[in-house]
Design brief:
- This protein is of the alpha/beta class.
- The chain has a single domain, classed as TIM Barrel (Alpha-Beta Barrel), CATH 3.20.20.80.
- The protein is about 40% helix and about 15% strand.
- It is built from 15 helices and 13 strands.
- It has helices at about 15, 30-35, 55-65, 80, 90-105, 125, 135-150, 165-175, 185-215, 235-260, 265-275, 325-330, 350-365, 385-405, 450-465; strands at about 5-10, 70-75, 110-115, 155-160, 215-225, 225-230, 300-305, 310-315, 330-335, 370-375, 410-415, 435-440, 445-450.
- The chain binds beta-D-galactopyranose (GAL).
- Beta-D-galactopyranose binds near residues 417 and 424.
Length: about 475
């Protein structure tokens, strides 16, 4: 059912696993700052130590081998490599760390997929405006070039930015992620814009300078729920669901895969609200300038993070201020038949993934797709025999198989989130997404395989050898 060269992976990110937050010359990131502020994260927890992968990398590698992964997705910490965010100061200890990780993976026949940015902006860059400032794109491009130059001889799959939608919205509109801004209605669009500009600059750098010798592929990882009308017979619900997909996935995928610009529907919805609210400031959804690198075509594959689904109905927003919610003018609800796994937002809907894959095939010109994240959280009492998660992986992977076989979607890989329990952002260590359990009360941070890890290993070994 799966192509022979299908990528069977698991994913992690630097801040969520590494720890060593100020070890060997690492600079602070916005997540270090955010977590050290009272009341930001569940139980005031932080990633100072996390899984201590900075020191315990061999243990992670053992887990990777035990699963039989063909690929491992990790992210680089910008501030570990470039403590002040610029290439003026390179932290060689950071370079050594990632060199070792990459070399060890390759020695075990595991291909690295490397994200340059997974939520952890160098604090020094935040201090000069962060993603709000247009200059961040050049700083990111310099960082990206440094990484391509340093690691690109061995890394063939790159993600520039992970989930720009989440970063923009949760970090700058809702404020529950770093840097914790709640600047409703404007900043998230500006941040998203600069992230797209940064991504495109890095893709062009790779394309013009590194591709010829390194021959890899570069994309950005886009998150989306599957969004479908609450009442398919009600045209307002149908258009609301379409609009929601446009605002969530189209926001970034449209410019990159379809037109080089934001979806018209998104722009017009935002402008309508601006007018209605008597807003006369700068365009809230910026325009790309001719000085920006072209955005269209700046992805060599489609990287999708899928977790859950929602039903959508039309609905205004009662708040009398400009906000993304108001612009969207739709309401998301859960279908009561969907089971909820540990965290409240995560309804278990494996077949939403198949529908979303088909949508991507149809709307974004049949791209090659890697599912770069998908997973199931456990909260409360620890269950090593995590039967529900086993079922979840089996049925999700079956949906991926159907998408490939029946819908002819070009899916090339699947990465489970996550290799091991880790620091789950605002939820701290309370939500466990791992295929391996990490005992955070044990000074050795012992990793123990969950039943779902064994199950995933079985699936991998079955299809790897077909
Ligand atoms: C994604 C994110 C991951 C992980 C996951 C589970 O949005 O990229 O870092 O935390 O969600 O919530």
């Amino acid at each position: 059912m799966f192509p022979r060269d299908f990528a069977w992976g698991a994913a992690t990110s630097a801040y969520q696993i590494e720890g060593g937050w100020q070890t060997d010359g690492k600079g602070p990131s916005i997540w270090d700052t955010f977590c050290h502020e009272e009341g930001r994260v569940f139980g005031n927890q932080n990633g100072d130590v996390a899984c201590n992968s900075y020191e315990l990398w061999e243990k992670d590698l053992e887990c990777i081998q035990q699963l039989g992964l063909t690929h491992y997705r990790l992210s680089l910490s910008w501030a570990r490599l470039l403590p002040d965010g610029t290439t003026r100061n390179v932290n060689q200890r950071g370079v050594q760390y990632y060199n070792r990780v990459i070399d060890d993976l390759l020695a075990c026949n595991v291909s690295p997929m490397v994200s340059l940015y997974h939520f952890d902006l160098a604090q020094a860059i935040q201090d000069v405006g962060g993603w709000k400032s247009p200059g961040v794109a050049t700083l990111f491009d310099n960082y990206a070039k440094f990484c391509f130059q340093t690691f690109g001889d061995r890394v063939k799959l790159w993600i520039t930015i992970n989930e720009p939608q989440v970063c923009a919205k949760l970090g700058h509109e809702v404020g529950i992620h770093a840097p914790g801004l709640k600047e409703k209605g404007t900043t998230a669009y500006l941040v998203g814009h600069n992230m797209l500009r940064a991504h495109a600059m890095a893709w062009h750098s790779y394309n013009s300078t590194y591709r010829i010798t390194q021959n890899g592929a570069v994309s950005l990882a886009l998150n989306s729920d599957w969004l479908e009308p609450l009442d398919p017979g009600r045209s307002e619900d149908v258009t609301s669901a379409e609009r929601d997909l446009i605002f969530t996935l189209g926001w970034f995928a449209w410019p990159v895969f379809v037109t080089g610009d934001y979806p018209e529907l998104m722009r017009s919805s935002i402008e309508t609200q601006s007018k209605m609210m008597g807003y006369s400031g700068e365009l809230r959804l910026p325009r790309f300038s001719i000085d920006d690198p072209p955005i269209l075509g700046t992805a060599d594959f489609f990287a999708l993070n899928y977790y859950t689904s929602r039903k959508v109905k039309s609905g205004g927003c009662s708040e009398q201020i400009l906000s993304m919610k108001r612009d969207l003018a739709a309401e998301e609800v859960l279908d009561p038949s969907w089971p909820i796994c540990g965290v409240s937002w995560l309804a278990v809907v494996p077949n939403g993934l198949r529908k979303l894959l088909k949508y991507i095939k149809d709307v974004f010109n049949n791209p090659t797709i890697y599912i770069t994240e998908n997973g199931f959280a456990q909260v409360g009492p620890l269950q090593i025999e995590d039967v529900e998660r086993c079922k979840f992986y089996k049925s999700t992977i079956l949906e991926v198989a159907k998408a490939i076989e029946e819908d002819e979607v070009n899916v090339r890989g699947y990465f489970a989130w996550s290799l091991m329990d880790n620091f789950e952002w605002a939820d701290g260590f309370s939500a466990r997404f791992g295929l391996f359990h990490v005992d955070f009360s044990d000074p050795e941070l012992r990793r123990t395989i969950y039943q779902s890890g064994r199950e995933y290993a079985k699936i991998i070994s079955k299809y790897k050898s077909v």
